[in-house]
Amino acid sequence: MDKILIGKGKSENCILLNKVNRHGLISGATGTGKTVTLKVLTEGLSDAGVPTILADVKGDLANISMSGEMNDKLQDRLYELGISNFEFKNYPVSMWDIYGEKGIPLRVTVSEMGPLMLSNILDLNDTQRGVLNIVFKVADSEGLLLIDLKDLKEVINFVNENRDEVSKNYGNVASQSLSAISRKLLFIEDAGGDLFFGEPAIDINDLVRTDASGKGLVNILNANKLISNPLLYSMLLLYLLSEIYENFPEVGDLDRPKLVFFFDEAHLLFNNTPSVLKDKIIQVVRLVRSKGVGVFFITQNPLDVPEEVSSQLSNRIVHQLRAYSPKELKAINAVADSFRQDDSMNLKEEIINLRTGEAIVSFADESGAPSLADKALILPPHSSFVTLKDAEYRNLVESSNLYLKYKDMVDRESAYEVLLKRIEREKIQEEREKLEEERLKEIERREKELEKERKSSRKQKSYIDKGIDSMLGTITRSIGREIARGLLGSMKKKR
Length: 495
Description:
By secondary structure, the chain is an alpha/beta fold. The chain folds into 3 domains: 3-107 and 201-406, Rossmann fold; 110-196; 437-495. The chain contains 16 helices and 12 strands. It has helices at residues 34-47, 72-81, 110-122, 126-141, 149-161, 163-170, 175-196, 230-247, 267-271, 275-288, 307-310, 326-337, 347-353, 390-398, 403-406, 415-494, and strands spanning 3-8, 12-16, 24-27, 52-56, 93-97, 104-105, 218-222, 259-263, 293-299, 315-318, 358-362, 374-378. A 12-stranded mixed β-sheet has the order 2-1-12-11-10-3-9-8-4-7-5-6. A hairpin with a 3-residue loop joins strand 1 (3-8) and strand 2 (12-16). The longest helix is centred in the C-terminal third of the chain and has 80 residues, at 415-494. The protein is elongated and about 165 Å long.
């Protein structure tokens, strides 16, 4: 039976590989050993050929890529556990960072995110959801690729400018809804969404790999900066989980899982996210088990995980919980009651008094039922505890064969560029039409002027002709009078 040794108590405490997809919980106060437990479980999964995805909030997981070294503290732990043949090992690691600062850039496209998930993330009301869905339909009908946020914003502007036509074809589109969506997109953009949305988009198959020796790839998401943006953090983890759910076939219970997620600072997934998004996370966690995927939540307080999710967690590792207030004591009582226990120990007292490195553990047995709670001393990890130097960290990132694939963002022609070109063409056409109109007006003006000149010339000629006629008339009349006078004069002389 394939299993991973986690610790030793009354007996060896092992998690069965074929029960990892029943999900799990790692909890405990700060400094009680959660990170060590996480590394031990991750290493065991990697040795079994199972890839993992971890969110590194504190920046202390990258050293899993380096072999550990013996020291007095470790020697004491191994002696207490009765382990003499401990082997130090390193593990294949890919570092990821949506900001591209301390890892391989991790991106998705707006189209891949889709209107439904984006609506959940933006916490849109029903009307706004409908409008966003219309925006995506318009983009599809117009052949506009939605890759990054500027694409989406430009299509929203396009829909707004053509609201009447769009409303006729798809239903009413209110400008208020479009404005509300645009405002909410600003929150995502300010949180780093302008880097998160883009190409090349992550291929989920690149996360589900093994190295040449058969070890499962450890995918570490650098979340030092990301954790300050809970919405973006939740969005990323939900997207990855949803993509895996949609692309993985139904397989039921396998001999070992295909992939295991570890969600650190789990309270951020549930306490600081829209209710619709939280419900979606709960839904996916419930369903993804049948895809051969396990999910572990890591948190300081087990009660941070909603009951709808907690009831699905068959594998539990609880380190020391502190009780400085009635509220905290109540929480410890609730945690103790969640374990299957016998009368051999007082779990409430044990949880409060656990040493660093100790934990109350219970794992699903072969039948799927939770084992009796046991107080176990957790094994040390095979990898290093030493924090990587900047040069070592950078080398770890850049040495990955995925680094060159995702390093540079590609901004190919998509909705933003197409619509800008369309606007530019329309402007040019409008300018041409305007110039043509002005040209025609100028021709018309000139023709009018010429006609006016012709009319004026004709009038002037008429005045001259009349003057000449008048003058000729006067001259003719004068000559006539002179001739008449001459004739009459000669007649008088003859008489």
